[in-house]
Each structure stands twice: as structure tokens, then as C-alpha cells.
Structure prediction request, 382 residues.
Amino acid sequence: MRPGAIARRPASADWRIAAAIVLALVLGGCARPGPEVLRPIGGTVQGAKTVTVAVATTRARAASGSNVFTVARARQTNYASFTISVPPGHRPGKVEWARGRPNPAKHFVTVDQSILDQRSFARDVARRAAQYPGHRVGVLVHGYNTNFQEALFRLAQMSADTDMKAAPVLFAWPSEARLNGYVADKDAVTYSRDSLVQMLTALTREPGTGRITVFAHSMGTWLTMEALRQLRLTGRNDVIRRLEVVLAAPDIDVDVFAEQLKVIGPMSPPLTLLVSPDDRALGFSSRIAGDRERVGRLNVADPRVQAAARSAHVEVIDISAFKGSDGLNHDRYVGLASAYPHLVAEAADNKSFQKAGAYVLDTVGVTLSSPFVYSSRALAGR
Prediction:
């Protein structure tokens, strides 16, 4: 899948992109949550919603018997469970962090946690999945520059906003959670490939689990694609058949992605890409990679992207209409999550949602459309 849809930018634009990224991340990083938010407060309030998240992580524990996880790489996968309380006045798309004393009436708070092993982890996920139609499981693989508690509470927020009918699972890899940790984070996702494969295999093997939706963001999408590739190369087609995969803002070289797809092959339903051509974080990622295009910035209006999507049997959805919260247009999936209940109702009447091709998601009517006509004129000479 090599559409060549992104034009080269002048050097002056690079500095503007870099400055915007530094400003957004540094300002956001001034008040980033620490591990104290993982300490259970012992109760919640009337009207709050609780979300229990099972965790598999390649982060090391801060100490034996602790559910605080560091940036160090664990020798083996660690497992845990957290119950997060979402405040009654929660605004969709937001995580209301406690700045000081946690108050469950106003803040996301931890009300319970436990240490698990692989066996109890899989059983716990299956038990909670049994509450939902089809015994579904939803896995989040977070992206670059994300600490453990940010990923955990983000999944709780998304689960609450979408009223997700699936057991939520976080796969957390040891991101440095630093602006200058990009290369270290890339090494960390490489380090975590086997653990993600093992977790997905364990969940599909556990009696009582149904289909598994894997939602990956940013650098986590590269980790997910590598795990899928490894599953295919080792003949674990039984695992892949149980998966539905969504990649949001994929920080993957377009040529690398094409090679990964050759090995993975078509998936059913099609592998879904959520893209934004104006994603500034991926613009900078592209530049530091020698002007190599990133999948997350594909332009669905380009006939070459449309043709490539159909040929590769993938679904490419432009979510540029949704607002991000990071100032870089890199986390628009958060806004998409808050619109999800309406999207599900719309998709029930729009079967194209499950077909390969290029689409635009419109927040005004929350409709999924395929406005691009594959005419002989458009395809001629492409």
C-alpha cells in the first residue's frame, strides 16, 4: 500500500511543527498524573460509574507485590486488575484528574486493584466478558509518550463514554513518557511483541471469550501489526480469526505497512485505519524519519489511496472532523469514542462500514460515507 499521498514540506514548516509539538507536550506534561492516582481510595459515590480493567504489561513493578509500574522493562509479562470510578458529572472525551486530594464526586479515582498471574488474568477477562453479548473483549494498545496511569485511565474513560459492551483489557508497554523518548519507545514496542502475542493467544484459548477487538494508537499500532505478522508466520490463524483490529493514527512507515500486510493478509472484518492528513505529530515523525510517509496521514481523497485500500482489503477512515485534545490532531480517536453510541446506530443501517475502501466520518450527522467514486476516469493512468 504505497499511495504517495503526502507532499514534502519545506524546512520552515518542520520548525513550526516541532515547536507546536514541544509546546503541546511540555505544557501537558507539567501536570501529568503520577502513580499516586493508582492508590485505591476505598469507595465511590452515588451516580458514579465503575470500570474494571484487566492489565497485561511489559513494564516492571516498582517493587514486589506492587501495582505501580515503572519505565523499566519486565523480564516477563506482569498482570493486574484495576477498578476505576468515573465521576457522575464526567464530560465525554475527558479524564477528570485529581489535582490534590481525590474526590470520587469530581475525579476519576481508583477504588480497587489486585495482582494477577497469566491464568487468573485470562479467567478474570473471560468472567467479565460473559456479561456481554458474544462474550466480547476490547484491548487497548497505547501509543508513544504515555505513562501507565494515563493509558489505564484513558481506557476507563473510553469504556465509560462508549458504554462498551466488552471486557476492557489494557496492554501497556514501557513507554518512557518523555518527549525525547521516541527512539527508546520504538525499542520498547519491539521488546513487547512476544508478550502481546502471548496475551492474545491466551485470551483466545480461554473458554468463554468471544471476538477480541484490538484498538491501537500511534506507535502502539506498529506493535500490533508486528504481533499480527508474528501470529501469521507461526501459523496461529486461529487467533487472527478471532480478532478485529482498529489502528488509530498509525505511526508506521507506509512501505513497512505494505510489507506487513503482505504477510498478514486480508482480515475479516477488514483491518481499519483511522487517519487525519493534518496530524502534526505524525508530520514530525515523518520528517525525522527522512520524509518517509506515515500511514496515519493518508489522504482518503487521493484515488491511489482508495484503490490501495480496496486492493489490500483494509478500511481507511478519515476522522479529521473530530476534535483532538492534544493540540496536535493526534488523539482524535478520543472524540470518536464519545460519539461511538451514535455511530453504532448509524452503522447498523450502513453496511459499507464493514467493507474495504476509503471513507469519511462526519460528526455533524455522525454518518459514515463513501463519497469517492471509482470511475474509469479517476483510475485511468493511476
Notes: The radius of gyration is 20 Å. Confidence is low (pLDDT under 50) at residues 4-29, 364-382.
